Amino acid sequence: MHNSSRETARNRGSVAVGPLTVPLVLVRFKMRLSLRYRLLVPLLLLLLGDIAATAWAAQSAARSADQKLAEQQWRIARTLTETASKYPLTEFVIEQVKGFSGAEFLLLQPGLPPLSTLPEKDISPPRDVPLATLSREGDEHRLGPPVIVAGQEYRCLRLPLKLRDPNAPGDLFIFYPESLRRTAMWDAARPPLVLGGIGGLIALGLAVAIGSRLVRRVRELEVRTRLIADGDFRPMPLPRTDDELKDLCHSVNDMARHLADLRDALQRAERLRVLGQFSGGLAHQLRNAVTGARLAVELFSTENPAADPEPVRVALRQLSRIESTLRQFLDLGKPPVGAKEPCELNALIDQAVQALKPQCHHAGTLLEWEAPAESIGITGDATQLSHLCNNIIGNAVDAAGASGVVRVQLATTAAGARITVTDTGPGPPAEIATKLFEPFVTGKEQGIGLGLAVAHQSALAHGGSIAWERHEGRTVFRVDFPI
Fold first, then answer.
1. Tens digit of pLDDT for each residue in 134-174?
2. Which of 40, 94, 336, 373 would be 461's cystine partner, CB 3.0–4.6 Å?
3. CA-wise closest residue to 348 among 408, 395, 320, 389
């Protein structure tokens, strides 16, 4: 029964704890810990360890200094007690000992006045200080208990004094100033404290600086990814430091570039889809109207043989161009369905040049066509290739403008055939230079951006390629076909 209730509670997003049911979200709750603190917590633990080690080192150094002072005083005490059994201790002797030891001395000898180096001579000796026994070399020594003499704190050591008369022993009191003892201990403990403190502060500062810098770089990546999510695919600047974050920035830039390519591909696909829907009705209607106009012009030419034929031929050529443009409009975005057959590029280019000569004559544009001595042919769709030649050369004529020059060349290469079209126009605007072969991209005020897109599609359909560049102030289009 209890198992089934627990299973039911778990399925409902809760956990049964005895008779109580706790929401599962509370069980799974975890506090979010910033990356900065994830980096600082281990470093702070190391800093605490450094503080503990520094304190231990300082305490050990102070204890060692205290031990050295005690050993020094005990050596002096041993020397004085051994000397007193052979030679008399005078005020001069104990003053000299005071000079190199820093301690004060009080010598009590039976039948003799006290000998003292203390500032105040008439001071009663502290009888509550127990007698100490001279220890052997290597034993641990102490300076003795603290006492107050004439308002000053000392560490007092009381030793039995062996005089030449063994029946009249004396006492030797050694007073070491507590201030000197503390100073010596502090001087010993200060270097590890200073070094450990400075090292800890430097380590903490470096940890904070490095952690903040790392978090700032991660924040910059977060901001950049949010911009990418909002559609801003510009590459982010790379950091100078060559580390994993720089590799991550490279990956983010690669992702942004791929997303930009996908967005452009989707936009092109959407434009082509809209184009197909729009062209399905409008283009057919326009073609019917153009066909009717062509029949009317041809009928007029038949019924009026004495009329000037040139205007009629111009009208028929323009109607043919309109019909060709509408056909391209219908075929854009669709795979070529024409039959592959041998096609002479010389003849296709010549037809395009002849069709554009009236326009060039009217605009004052010089159109030069250098046909090769031998015929160059490829296997392909003549209609598609004719559209390609008309669009590439016509685009160059429009770009060259009045008094411009357009040169068309055809030659063979190691891989196949190449059509080169050069014009003296200013070239495409910089904002469309990288997407010149996309549909509806144009730098002309009255253009619709289909000519180069159709040419690009035709070149790819025939296994070729099309590219352009600016060379010596001219715009050069090259179309390469495999033979």
1. 666 556 677 888 888 888 898 888 888 766 566 656 788 88
2. 336
3. 389
Residue 434, number of CB atoms within 10 A of its CB: 11
Q: Are 192 and 180 in contact (CB under 8 A)?
A: no
Residue 150: how many other CB atoms lie within 10 Å = 11
Strand pairing of 405-412 and 366-370?
parallel
Per-residue pLDDT of 92-145, as tens digits, reads: 888 888 888 888 888 887 777 888 888 777 777 787 888 777 666 556 677 888
Cβ distance 333 to 265 under 8 Å?
no
Q: Is 161 helix (H, G, I), strand (E, B) or coil?
A: strand
Query: What confidence score (pLDDT) does residue 220 get?
Result: 83
Q: Is the pLDDT of residue 275 over 50?
A: yes
2-17 residues labelled b (16+ CB within 10 A) or e (exposed): eeeeeeebeeeebbbe
| Residues in contact with 130: Cβ distance below 8 Å, sequence separation at least 6, in sequence order | 158
Please give the Cα distance from 318 to 390 (Å, whole number): 13
Given a cut of 90, whether residue 418 has pLDDT beyond it is yes
Q: In angstroms, how far is CA 261 from the centroid of its own chain?
A: 23
